[in-house]
């Protein structure tokens, strides 16, 4: 009996790359990935046009509508479904009476911005260090390898929380969040890039480039980097939802983005004390977060299946 | 094997030292002002100077770090004026906020985190291996698809969302379970488990997906190997083939993964602890961050790092010990 072996980790030769056009076509035909892409596109548009959307609604993120909450009960929104009305499309926040729709769409900016920014930084640091240790001599490889081990040995969440405590308050919080998440999370990308570099290094075209006298930087850029695009892209697609969870978690704990700046994680953390009188306040940011995360995960899974004929599994 | 063991442990110690140096340096160097934080509100310049010298904060950072290390192994004496305060080894200093020894704060928080992690891991291994095996052995395609969907959903769901949904359903609406409060195992085992059931479930629902996927992939791979074909050719019953020859090979990598994950859950279940109000080390850290309580922050982070690094080393050694194919390079 033959059973297809799905996992083929650590293949020596990278599979023949798909042309960009073919990859895109396959990705579009993948139903799950296409659904993910549509949801992401909508969320990105919402984030980009957040000011336009709130202007359409006629609200903003900070004005407290004290007339719309019942102060006798501690601040539950007046009306059904958390105070949904023509002028407040998703109702208002309990206790403060701030407009929920406005906070949701501006929250999308933080969630997406921090997640994508952190991923970009992680990839830049990881690929740089990975290529350097793959191409460098024993000493460089040893030092960078131990450095990578060290970042992977940190209890990531604990360290992020502790770091957020001491960063100066003058720098914008979303920027700090992205940097902290990236600085603690580039290790696995670097390992992946190093492994790929090592296997590419033995190929003839790299040897030919070296023999023809190309300087190391040129070899890295022209010969190695193109071979890294597919595996790194596949991995980065998985990093985005993971980073989004980190941001939401840190903001949820109150060490990430601080109110009145809206973030889905921060909204959810207030929602936990309000779910009995006002379940909308949990459902709205929770639903948005779950939908976006699911979309990115579907896309990541699609990218993995599409770009990699061998279905190489990359551990999250 | 002994050489490998020694190398791996020395490596772990080196990483630990580096970790503690980085943590200490980061938190005691600028931009925070430890002496002012230790002195508290309404601090006078005279008092500040006393605090500074008694905590040794007037010395260079390297000396401070060395005395921090010394305190962990040999204890530390804090002298302020005539009175001397003895802090026996392992000494991590005193909380700026409550003046309790950091070690006693940790020793009350660690059992909570360990209870949470152990139960959650047991539950997720059970769920994960079980559903992984069912999907492979039943050979039904729709089960495969269902598993894939669950795995993706698990990857896309933050644990606090699961926790919130569980709390709303089981504690608030159905009222089947109490809102969790931690009861020590030694005090009342039944109540301990009853209160931890929801937190365990929340973590297991997310963690199990990864084990299910891994079990499935590994079992498929092992099923195709020669020794399994040989066992079948000998006419062994299917149950014996699976039980004796497939599972052993398939589940070995899971043991390693589980050892690392146990440390991971124990040191990273901050959100679960917060959601369910469990006073574990994650909650302790969040509280300390709120008041910039440096000794507690450093103590918790270094402890978490130690657990994590030791678990990693342990997992590697375990893997080498149970899988004869591993080469000890």
Descriptive keywords:
heterodimer; A: 316 residues; mainly alpha; two-stranded antiparallel sheet; 66% helix; 1% strand; elongated; disordered N terminus; disordered C terminus; B: 329 residues; MetI-like fold; 2 domains; two-stranded antiparallel ribbon; 13 helices; 74% helix; 3% strand; globular
| Highest CATH level, the class of the largest domain in chain B | Mainly Alpha
CATH architecture of the largest domain in chain B, by name, is Orthogonal Bundle
User: What's the total helix number of chain A?
Assistant: 12
Query: Using CB atoms under 8 Å apart, which protein chain pair has the greatest interface?
Result: A-B, 50 and 54 residues
Shape of chain B: globular
Please give a structural write-up.
- The complex is a heterodimer of chains A (316) and B (329).
- Chain A has 12 helices and 2 strands; from the N terminus they run αααββααααααααα.
- Chain A has a two-stranded antiparallel ribbon.
- In chain A, strand 1 and strand 2 form a beta hairpin.
- The longest helix of chain A has 37 residues.
- The radius of gyration of chain A is 23 Å and the shape is elongated.
- Chain B folds into 2 domains: 86 residues, no CATH class; 221 residues, MetI-like (MetI-like fold), CATH 1.10.3720.10.
- Chain B has 13 helices and 2 strands.
- In chain B, strands 1-2 form a two-stranded antiparallel ribbon.
- Chains A and B meet through helix 5, helix 6, helix 10 and helix 12 of A and helix 1, helix 6, helix 7, helix 8 and helix 10 of B.
């Amino acid at each position: 009996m033959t059973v297809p072996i799905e996992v083929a980790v650590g293949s020596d030769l990278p599979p023949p790359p798909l042309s960009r056009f073919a990859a895109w076509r396959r990705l579009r035909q993948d139903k799950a990935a296409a659904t993910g892409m549509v949801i992401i596109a909508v969320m990105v548009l919402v984030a980009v046009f957040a000011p336009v959307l709130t202007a359409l609604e006629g609200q903003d993120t900070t004005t407290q509508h004290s007339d719309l909450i019942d102060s006798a009960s501690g601040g539950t929104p007046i009306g059904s479904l958390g105070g949904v009305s023509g002028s407040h499309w998703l109702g208002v926040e309990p206790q403060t009476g701030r407009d929920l729709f406005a906070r949701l769409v501006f929250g999308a900016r933080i969630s997406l911005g921090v997640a994508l920014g952190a991923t970009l930084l992680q990839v830049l640091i990881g690929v740089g260090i990975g290529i350097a240790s793959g191409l460098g001599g024993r000493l460089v490889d040893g030092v960078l390898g131990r450095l990578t081990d060290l970042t992977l040995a940190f209890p990531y969440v604990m360290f992020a929380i502790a770091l957020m405590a001491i960063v100066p308050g003058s720098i914008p919080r979303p920027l700090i969040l992205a940097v902290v998440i990236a600085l603690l999370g580039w290790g696995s990308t670097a390992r992946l890039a190093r492994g790929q570099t090592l296997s590419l290094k033995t190929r003839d075209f790299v040897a030919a480039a070296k023999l023809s006298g190309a300087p190391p930087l040129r070899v890295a850029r022209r010969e190695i980097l193109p071979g890294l695009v597919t595996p790194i892209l596949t991995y980065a697609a998985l990093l985005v939802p993971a980073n989004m969870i980190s941001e939401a978690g840190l903001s949820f704990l109150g060490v990430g983005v601080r109110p009145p700046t809206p973030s889905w994680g921060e909204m959810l953390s207030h929602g936990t004390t309000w779910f009995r009188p006002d379940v909308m306040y949990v459902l709205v940011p929770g639903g948005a977060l779950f939908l976006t995360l699911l979309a990115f995960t579907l896309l990541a899974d699609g990218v993995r299946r599409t770009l990699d004929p061998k279905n190489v599994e990359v551990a999250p | 094997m002994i050489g490998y063991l020694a190398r791996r442990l020395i490596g772990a110690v080196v990483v630990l030292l580096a970790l503690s140096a980085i943590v200490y340096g980061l938190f005691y160097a600028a931009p925070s002002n430890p002496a002012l934080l230790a002195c508290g509100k309404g601090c006078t310049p005279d008092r500040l100077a006393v605090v500074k010298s008694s905590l040794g904060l007037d010395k260079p950072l390297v000396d401070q770090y060395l005395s921090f290390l010394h305190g962990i192994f040999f204890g530390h004496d804090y002298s302020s004026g005539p009175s001397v305060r003895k802090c026996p080894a392992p000494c991590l200093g005193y909380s700026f906020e409550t003046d309790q020894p950091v070690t006693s704060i940790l020793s009350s928080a660690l059992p909570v985190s360990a209870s949470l992690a152990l139960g959650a891991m047991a539950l997720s291994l059970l769920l994960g291996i079980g559903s992984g095996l069912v999907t492979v052995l039943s050979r039904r395609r729709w089960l495969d698809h269902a598993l894939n969907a669950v795995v993706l959903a698990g990857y896309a769901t933050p644990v606090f969302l699961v926790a919130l949904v569980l709390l709303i359903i089981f504690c608030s609406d159905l009222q089947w379970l109490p809102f969790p409060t931690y009861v020590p195992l030694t005090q009342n085992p039944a109540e301990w488990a009853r209160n931890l059931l929801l937190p365990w479930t929340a973590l297991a629902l997310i963690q199990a997906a990864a084990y299910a996927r891994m079990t499935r992939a590994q079992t498929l791979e092992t099923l195709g190997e020669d020794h399994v074909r040989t066992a079948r050719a000998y006419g062994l019953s299917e149950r014996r083939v699976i039980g004796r020859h497939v599972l052993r090979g398939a589940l070995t990598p899971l043991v390693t993964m589980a050892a690392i994950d146990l440390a991971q859950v124990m040191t990273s279940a901050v959100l679960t602890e917060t959601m369910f109000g469990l006073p574990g080390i994650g909650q302790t850290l969040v509280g300390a961050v709120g008041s910039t309580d440096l000794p507690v922050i450093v103590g918790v982070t270094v402890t978490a790092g130690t657990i994590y690094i030791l678990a990693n080393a342990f997992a590697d050694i375990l893997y080498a010990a149970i899988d004869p194919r591993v080469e000890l390079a």
